[in-house]
Amino acid sequence: MPTAFRATFLLGMRAALPFVAMIVPFGALFGVIAAAQGLTLFQALAFSFVVVAGASQFAALQLMQAGAPLLVVILTATAVNLRMAMYSVAMTPHFGKAPFWQRALVAYMLIDQSYLLSAAQFERTPEWTLTEKLGYYFGTVLLLCGLWYLATWFGVAFGSMMPEDMAFDFIVPVTFLAMIAPMILTRAQMAAAAMSAGVALALWWMPYSSGLLLAALAAMATGAAVEIYEERRLG
């Protein structure tokens, strides 16, 4: 392992440590809910290994429990994870010249935390080489992904032993508020967030939580419109 890679890898791992307090209970909660809805240990672990996206996994489970059509499940899970496409675009200038297998690993391990930490760090250290950036990125995410898989296993294996009145559902909204709130800085981002929340609340009555799809589309359209307006006003 190159010295530069190892140094930034350890730096990234230290930066990710605060997120452990959220990832572990979040993953365990998914395992508990997956087991309660009839998924086997293998199925729940496969879910976490293949998807690696807590929000869309929870959304898919809830829709499956409600008996939603497969197409609705897929579209909703995709809508919840549309932000990953924007993360990918933002990371392309940093990792675009990496070998294909490295880019594939970066894409597979792209989660909110790895993007949030890496984007902020790369902005502070524009002089870093590709090797240093890869080291930092994998340092932020390997620990969290490993704990996500382990927590899923723990939730499925031992969830039945937990008291029924123990509340874990608050973890989901708190986790996303803690991660996303600091990233909402521009007017376009604020407008998109407000539109998303407003439409989702207004369309709560729609079957199979399909209002989330319209909320996501409305948020993206709003954010794009505000950005275009800002560019024209300043240009």
Describe the structure.
- With about 240 residues, this protein is an all-alpha fold.
- The chain folds into two domains: about 170 residues, no CATH class; about 50 residues.
- About 75% of the residues lie in helices and about 0% in strands.
- It contains twelve helices and no strands.
- Helix 2 runs parallel beside helix 4 and helix 3 runs antiparallel to helix 9.
- The termini are far apart.
Distance between the termini: 47 Å
Q: What fraction strand?
A: under 5%
* N to C succession of SSEs: HHHHHHHHHHHH
Mean pLDDT across every amino acid position: 85
**Quick one: overall form?**
globular
Quantity of strands, as a count: 0
Share in helix = over 70%
Number of domains: 2
Please describe the biggest sheet, giving its number of strands, its sense, and whether it closes into a barrel: none
- Poorly predicted ranges: none
Number of helices: 12
Secondary-structure content class: mainly alpha
In short:
The protein has 235 residues and is mostly helical. It is built from 12 helices and no strands.
Summary tags:
mainly alpha; about 75% helix; 2 domains; globular; about 240 residues; Brnchd-chn_aa_trnsp_permease
Helix/strand layout:
Blueprint: H1 3-16, H2 20-36, H3 41-51, H4 54-65, H5 70-80, H6 83-95, H7 100-108, H8 112-124, H9 130-158, H10 171-180, H11 187-202, H12 211-234
Helix pairs in contact: 1-9, 2-4, 2-9, 3-9, 4-5, 5-12, 6-8, 8-9, 11-12
